[in-house]
Design goal:
It is a single chain. A hairpin with a 2-residue loop joins strand 3 (184-187) and strand 4 (190-193). The protein is globular, with a radius of gyration of 22 Å. The protein folds into 2 domains: 3-91, no CATH class; 102-414, no CATH class. It has 11 helices and 11 strands. With 414 residues, it is of the alpha+beta class. The strands form 2 sheets. A 9-stranded mixed sheet has the order 1-2-5-6-7-10-9-8-11. It starts with a helix and ends in a 28-residue tail after the last strand.
Amino acid sequence: MTKLSVITASIALFAVVASDVAPGLTTLYHDISPHLQVPRDLLTGPEAAGELSTGATNPPPAIPNPATVYGRAWCKGSRLMLGMTLPAATAQNHISPIYSPWTGALNKEMAAWGYNDETVYPGGDNSCDLEHLGLKRVCEHLRISTKTRANGGPNKCYKIVHKDGPAVIRLPPNNRLPEPQSQYYKNGARLYRVTNARYEIAVNAQDGLITFVDVHSPKTQATRLWGGVPNSGDLPALRALSDIAWGLWYRDCSDQQRPLAGISKIISVNIANDDTDTIIDEALSKWTPPPGYQRPSSIPPWPGITFDTSTEAGLALLGSPNGAAIGFFLAQHKQFLGNKYVLSITVWVQDGGWEIHNMMMWIGDTPTPPPPPPTSLGGSGSSGHMGNVSEARVVARSKDGRNMVREHVIHAKL
């Protein structure tokens, strides 16, 4: 059997579990098509003629169990890879809508949906200082300043909260704001309730970097504020992290006169999402270290371990709660970015005993022809690495792993 026969068979197998791939996503936002097929122009030989050999002597490789957190993430990551790397006309078969309805700086749209822009301008605090976030060694390697723009550096600290916004209905006397639990706003003819969601994101258009600092989604925060799980129709239509991040990236590129297509790295810090942690642990268990190195018992500090997205583990990380937002960010804005995709994903833990996962997505241009459709590889193979990180690759280094400590929850996607 040819390699593409295996690919086609594997994709056909996981297509049947489409309804489990993206639980909680609405049709309007990031509904991934269940019809995952190999593009015809990528097929050669008998597959191009519609012939698929699945002889008993050459069965397709086992795909991850779609009933598991890891398996669902792999399915989702596989589709995101197709959405990122294929032209829009084909990518829309895998991600719908392929173009996000939210474009531009989104200042008016955020205000209309109840958000308040608490972005810190010069003289503000250091909450987005990357050294304060434990990224000093990372930035030294990347040759990027850790400083915020308020302190002369390149990192602009944006803070968007879903409360106290200009659309929130004020009360007499003195046109005062009620407490968050009693705040409402109108959009069109409908009344909505604020959620207390928070997006704190550092954007550095100069160096092509976005850092997710502190993200609490509308669904999670509404559950806490309202005392129950909300209906999706009661949440702001503008709520996906990928869309909020796009608006902030657009603003910063405009302010700094930098190209939108200059994005090259996206970091999520202080990850404590249970599903993402589970996916990271399984990805590590499938990783084959380079010759002469041992697999650590857990993810080591920087430079950590890097997983290529050509591997099963890399695709699962891409489809994780903290990875999927980046996939949607790239796939749904390809009319501005071109066919950018996640090349590889580096995972590491904090220095200084605070062993919390961090994740960096390395972004590049899709090659011509694009990478082959995803297939299960039965493990990460040698495409995952330990060691000093470069713009697209890493080499061997650390052997030690440490224990996990959980801190504030970051939800990458609703």
